[in-house]
Amino acid sequence: MAKYKMIKLEGRVFVTFNLKAVTGLHIGGSDTGIEIGGVDKTIVRDTLTNKPYIPGSSLKGKVRSLLEKYQGLPQNRNIGHAHIHSCESKEQYAHCAVCRIFGVPGELEFATPTRLVVRDVHLDEDSAKELEDLARTDLPYTEVKTEVAIDRVTSRANPRQMERVPAGSVFGPAELVYSIYGGDVSDPLQDIAYLKVLIEGLQLLEDDYLGGLGSRGSGKVALENISVKVRKDSLSKAQPAGQAKYATLAELAADLEPVLGEVEKTLGLA
Questions:
Q1: Nearest Cα to 45, choosing from 183, 165, 175?
Q2: How far is the CA of 133 from the CAs of 14, 21, 80, 137, in angstroms?
Q3: Angle CA 237–243–248, to nearest 5
């Protein structure tokens, strides 16, 4: 008789926060239809509201990339023109926090469900109103930053215009949903321990940048008003783990061990 693997969802951890653009933020959109003389690099916008937003894929991909570099993981899989890390064996996958948190291709025999879901993050209503009231933005909700490339031989200037969300704008609430699994193919205590790695990735993000043009000043972000909640099953209410709110990511990181302990207790694993 065939033996079937069993995996059990033990619960979920919800990390919510606001994401503040400390410097102008550029997450590229489609340039299709841009008129001659218009902006060279546009941002991504919500189709219904025309407001800028942060795609969950951009946030998740950036944090994964930073963790792969931080841990020195081999970039052994091609996705289009990009190179990323993906474990190649069950033995590697068993101890790889990055692949377990962010996922591997489903066709791999040893793959288990991706732990992390990252929602799209929309522009905060207060920030949107402030940008509307300013009436000084170059485009709806955004500014246009002109950059100039200089030909090293002729000294000829080649100006380019980049669209950015202005510094000080707030996106949120952002939501990360982290699943804790048990059963035959997952250790729930290991999944909880890997939450440290996720928080470490968010700290790396604050030290780096989000979106494009980061080496030229754009994309510095800060996490604010952070909360961590845990829910054992779909019928129960999510319970706070740790303080009700953490003003900064550094505050959460300093209190992380008690937070993980409360997650274990709420899920009945302590």
A1: 165
A2: 33, 19, 42, 10
A3: 120
Give the residues of the chain that fall short of pLDDT 70: 1-3, 29-39, 135
Q: Can you give the pTM of this predicted structure?
A: 0.91
CB atoms within 10 A of CB 53: 18
Give the Cα separation of 225 and 238 in Å (integer): 17
In a domain, 13, yes or no: yes
Contact (Cβ atoms closer than 8 angstroms) between residue 139 and residue 154: no
CA distances from 9 to 123, 180, 201, 225 (A): 32, 6, 24, 28
Is 83 a domain residue?
A: no
pLDDT in tens, 141-150: 999 998 888 8
Instruction: Specify the number of domains making up the chain.
Output: 1
d(CA 260, CA 46): 35
**Rounded Cα gap, residues 148 and 151, in angstroms:** 10
Q: Which domain holds residue 216?
A: 7-60+113-266
Largest CA distance in the chain: 76
Which residues are 83's β-sheet partners? 78
* Residue 120 located in a structural domain: yes
The closest alpha carbon to 213, from 51, 26, 42, belongs to 26
Q: Tell whether 87 is covered by a domain.
A: no
Secondary structure class of 98 (helix, strand, coil): helix
